[in-house]
Amino acid sequence: MFQNLTERLSGVVQKLRGRGRISEDNVRDTVRRIRMALLEADVALPVAKTFVERVLSRALGEEVAQSLDPGQAFVKIVNDELITVLGGEAAEIRRAGRPSTVLLVGLQGAGKTTTAAKLAKYLSANGKARVLLVSTDVYRPAARAQLATLAQSLDITCLEPASDDPVAIAETALAEATRGGYAWLIVDTAGRLHVDEALMNEVGAMQAAVRPAETLFIVDAMAGQDAVNSARAFHDALELTGAILTKADGDARGGVALSVREVTGVPIKFVGSGENLDALDRFVPARMASRILGMGDVVGLVETVQRKVDQRTAEKVARKVKRGRELDLEDFRGQLEQLQQLGGIDSLIDKLPGVNPAAVAQAGFDERQVRRQIGIINAMTLKERRQPRLIDGSRKRRIAAGAGLAVQDVNRLLKQHKTLAKTMKRVSKAGGVERLLGGSLGPQGMGRGRPGR
Q: What is the Cα 209 distance to its own chain's centre?
């Protein structure tokens, strides 16, 4: 989401990093460039103006002048102010009573229904708590059907509305959640293509009826300034307690994330970055600021790995490597699928410090390639996956036809697998796997290491 902004800002501040002396002209020129980068990223003008004024005030003060490393001090100022704009401390989702009700509001197309299911999974997985879902969208039956389908896939209860009155549906759901001992009630509301009086009256009445612990505005990161204006309108009409940023994996400029907190005063609590129902993460301003400045988010990456990597699969592969056994194509497919679970290559490199996404793209690493490789392996028989050496010319042609790809693609996959297998076999010798895995598979640490290492 922040690729363009990251490239611009990191390029600007890099020129000052490491300088032993910075003049006032250097500072003013750099701040001007930062302002342009923010505006190009669709950051609201008042937010960009306030941000650069704070940076300039601190940069021209004693904080930089008396620093042993003025360039590094300036970078720290920019990082600190980004954290402030993004909300400062990470905000937890609030609980109030049993059930704690979460009301999701926003415009149509922002991703409320999918986010409702993601939030239900997050709350049930992290708190081991029972969650009840309900849709009050009486205008689009497809929305209710979608939520019911998503809930079923998660094995989470979704209440079937027996009324055409949104407020009555919400009240019934609250009574059912109380009676059933649910910890959370998530209410998905109807959206509109634009802010209108009828929408505001409806969600206002619903808020008064169920008295939610959280009223979260679902904001589309792709919507630019329109999303900021909508957030302001909803906040004026309702008592918003927070926001959830959706579609952060798209090519949005990132201005919404930097504007919503400053404009509404409510924190962004979660960020959604994919279609998978586990693609919802807590919004941590300090980590997001670090990513924007190109310094990565290693802590966030570790948390993602711990949450999404299948530890048993990772340990199985690690033990296989340690014993010097060659990884077969089933193992290779498992690693590719784990990569997809982590959100794909783009999601990973976004959190790694010092990695240029453009360079990775030029090297040919993309999501389509991963999907093609999995498709090729799926077109093989079980025997071929376990014994790749059996794959001759005729088998390659059959596999390529089954995957809908060229024989060259099959050859490329087999070559990559062979290279990986050889590398892992070398690692297994002379204690290499212990060094690779940080000792997590030693005699006292089998199975207790960090997953995916």
A: 33
Q: In degrees rounded to 5, what are phi and psi of residue 103?
A: -100, 120
Give the model's pLDDT for residue 345: 55
Among the listed ranges 209-213, 256-260, 321-325, which one has the minimum average pLDDT value? 321-325
- Where, residue-wise, is CATH 3.40.50.300 in the chain? 100-295
Peptide bond into 161 cis (omega under 30): no
Q: What DSSP state is assigned to residue 103?
A: E
Say if CB 221 and CB 252 are below 8 A apart. yes
Q: Regarding the domain delimited by 303-436, which CATH topology (the fold level of the hierarchy) does it fall under?
A: 434 Repressor (Amino-terminal Domain) (1.10.260)
Residue appearing with tokens 């028989």: 381
> 131 - beta bridge partners?
184
Report the alpha-carbon distance of residue 95 to residue 77 in Å, rounded: 34
pLDDT 10s digits, 343-374:
555 555 555 555 555 544 544 456 678 888 88
How much of the chain is in helix, strand and coil states, percent to nearest 5? 60, 10, 35
**Residue 445 in tokens:** 């640490």
